[in-house]
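> example.struct
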């Protein structure tokens, strides 16, 4: 029993921080040319990164040294006079394909890598070995590289349709494709937040912005998004180390949330209809207030709080100080561990979702929604019952993994499921995802609304047979869930 992703997906999900070189020298902009050149020769470095107040502001390459410095400079000149500024850079958590695309688009051979606080971690070099490793993926990388403004964000989101279609046509599993789409959505989130920061900071609401972390929840948190996920996000901020009062800090993060959610909506990651977004005060709090709220949600276990916890459990940090998210995750898991009766209430809430397969093996189609009459909701009566069931077992057995497949794998290692069950349920999720994503691609190409519904009449006989088989297995899993959780804590 094992789970590995396709090599093509791995190419697109490698991170920039894993490819940094330390072949650079950091110098203050006011340092003299002589001092820096002597130092770079002594340490045998090839690139100079220029700092002002310890933050990156420029770069000097080997070609710059030859063309600008050797023939034009004086020994006592400030080295900053000869830098290229502003300088392109990527963050440590950015994906490698984004770094490569940025270098290719701007005709660069060097690209600094920094962390969220602006510290330089290293530099990425564009060289033939890296291109050879990426091979035929270079075209896709070029196609996914857009400007980091709002227009570029919109173009990047639209590119997902063509990318998903090409990958599915190349026999990449739909589960891997959704994993990559989720990564691209994270890039979109980060760009939207950076643009929002720039705009909101100009309002000077607070002088010193405290550490914060933006969370993505639901399918995005599990890295299982399809082509048209809505927004499920939140913000944690560190109020303890802030010099501003609580009201002003929260006002800043409300304005930030309002701006980045607007950009996401414009880019076709629409507002959450249930208002599970950082613009809602329930999803925008200090770390301590988050803990108090979680405590209240778990203790009350009413329909709203169960819905909130169901969504929050799948969160992951996408921007900012990850330690805030880790602290909240640790608190949540420990609280659930000490409150086993919570699972009974959570089961009762999810009890109504089940696979759309009837007693006699017929599809159960939509009968109430006039826009989707006689269609099959492949998410809410297909993948969702499977995802919810695995989440329930993960909470019970203290599995702290993000994706459904990773959770299922660890549950199998803990003997909750057999190897055969793991294989069957994994294949079920991949197959349902494939059918759903293919339908969404067809909808998008016809400029139709992207939905989670399919018309089973459009499936081949073999496809219908497989779909019914997997839906029956998911329904059996829900029956097992009832025996394990429905009466366990009565």
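> example.seq
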């Amino acid at each position: 029993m094992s789970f590995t992703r396709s090599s093509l997906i791995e190419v697109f999900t490698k991170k920039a921080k894993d490819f940094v070189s330390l072949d650079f020298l950091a110098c203050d902009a006011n340092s003299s040319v002589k001092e820096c050149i002597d130092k770079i020769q002594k340490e045998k470095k090839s690139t100079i990164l220029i700092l002002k107040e310890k933050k990156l502001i420029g770069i000097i390459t080997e070609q710059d040294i030859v063309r600008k410095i050797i023939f034009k400079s004086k020994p006592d000149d400030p080295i900053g006079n000869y830098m290229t500024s502003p300088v392109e850079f990527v963050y440590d958590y950015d994906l490698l394909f984004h770094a490569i695309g940025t270098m290719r688009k701007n005709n660069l051979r060097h690209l600094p890598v920094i962390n969220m606080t602006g510290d330089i971690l290293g530099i990425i070099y564009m060289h033939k070995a890296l291109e050879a490793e990426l091979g035929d993926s270079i075209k896709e990388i070029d196609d996914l590289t857009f400007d980091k403004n709002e227009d570029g964000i919109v173009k990047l989101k639209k590119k997902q349709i063509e990318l998903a279609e090409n990958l599915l046509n190349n026999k990449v599993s739909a589960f891997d494709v959704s994993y990559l789409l989720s990564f691209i959505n994270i890039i979109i989130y980060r760009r939207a937040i950076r643009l929002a920061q720039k705009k909101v900071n100009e309002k000077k609401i607070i002088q010193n912005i405290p550490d914060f972390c933006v969370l993505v929840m639901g399918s995005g948190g599990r890295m299982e998004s399809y082509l048209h996920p809505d927004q499920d996000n939140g913000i944690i901020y560190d109020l303890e180390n802030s010099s501003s009062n609580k009201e002003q800090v929260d006002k800043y993060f409300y304005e930030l949330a309002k701006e980045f959610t607007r950009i996401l909506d414009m880019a076709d990651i629409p507002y959450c209809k249930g208002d599970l977004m950082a613009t809602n005060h329930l999803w925008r709090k200090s770390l301590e207030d988050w803990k108090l709220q979680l405590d209240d949600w778990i203790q009350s276990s009413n329909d709203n709080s169960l819905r909130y916890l169901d969504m929050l459990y799948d969160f992951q940090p996408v921007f900012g100080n990850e330690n805030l998210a880790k602290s909240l995750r640790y608190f949540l898991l420990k609280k659930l561990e000490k409150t086993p009766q919570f699972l009974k209430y959570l089961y009762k809430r999810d009890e109504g979702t089940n696979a759309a397969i009837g007693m006699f093996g017929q599809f159960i189609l939509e009968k109430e929604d006039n826009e989707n009459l006689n269609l099959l909701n492949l998410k809410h009566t297909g993948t969702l019952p499977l995802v919810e069931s695995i989440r329930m077992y993960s909470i019970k057995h203290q599995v702290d993994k993000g994706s459904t497949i990773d959770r299922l794998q660890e549950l199998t290692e803990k003997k909750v499921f057999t190897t055969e069950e793991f294989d069957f349920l994994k294949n079920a999720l991949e197959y349902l995802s494939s059918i759903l994503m293919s339908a969404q691609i067809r909808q998008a190409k016809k400029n139709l609304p992207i939905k989670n519904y399919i018309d089973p009449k459009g499936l081949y006989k073999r496809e219908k047979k497989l779909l019914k088989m997997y839906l029956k297995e998911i329904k059996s899993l829900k029956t097992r869930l009832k025996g394990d959780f429905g009466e366990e804590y009565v």
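> remarks
DSSP finds 18 helices and twelve strands in the chain.
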